[in-house]
Amino acid sequence: MSLQIDILTVLPELLESPFNHSILKRAKEKGLLGIRVHPLRKWAVNDYGQIDDYQYGGGAGMVMMPEPLANAIETLSQEGPFDDIIYMTPDGERLNQKMANGLSLKGRLLLICGHYKGIDQRIRDKYVTREISIGDYVLSGGELAAAVLVDAIGRLIPGVLNDETSALFDSFQDNLLAPPVYSRPAEWRGLKVPDILLSGDPKKIEDWRHEQSLQRTRQRRPDLLEGEED
Length: 230
Ligand code: ADE
Description:
It is built from eight helices and nine strands. It has helices at about 20-30, 65-75, 95-105, 120-125, 145-155, 195-200, 200-220, 220-225; strands at about 5-10, 35-40, 50-55, 60-65, 85-95, 110-115, 130-135, 185-190, 190. It is an alpha/beta fold. The strands form three sheets. It has a five-stranded parallel sheet with strand order 2-1-6-5-7, with helices on both faces. Bound molecules: adenine.
């Protein structure tokens, strides 16, 4: 196994399907990616399955209690250390391609999905090594964010993509957006594929694609060219 990802969640049902299709499914079948989803209620503090409680100081919204999370983390750690224990949270470091590249080279990750008002700060202080946000908006829980992170990482694990699906030319790999792409027919409803793509000249095609990438990035994401997203 190249990368083993464990996910802690109160809603395991939400994560039943996202990893069972397309590239991630292939990655699992090739034995390069392992994903285990653990229901946090397994480590609940009582027979009612309680894992959250009111927050000290008052205010609306429940907080995920420290004990179930600590027990889960400690149990899973007995199988071996995690390279990173990642808490999915809107106040974390914003996910980008460079982070995904780095995480795809790790061996074992634990993702913690928050719910309600989030998890008790002491768990963040004591166990969490990294906090990741998938963007500046608030989701109802960390599950969909974890699914996004696993997808972004999983496809980058060495050996998962072949030449045809290579990530080398993805948007963001060089801080550039990807160029436009076309398929058959060469003329569709009066709209033509740029001649250069039909020229059969690999050098010219490569130069054209690079130029298109630059143009697109300048127009849509000038911040990438200034290196702000590094
Ligand atoms: N949980 C709720 N919103 C989130 C976000 N934007 N990123 C990561 N985890 C989250």
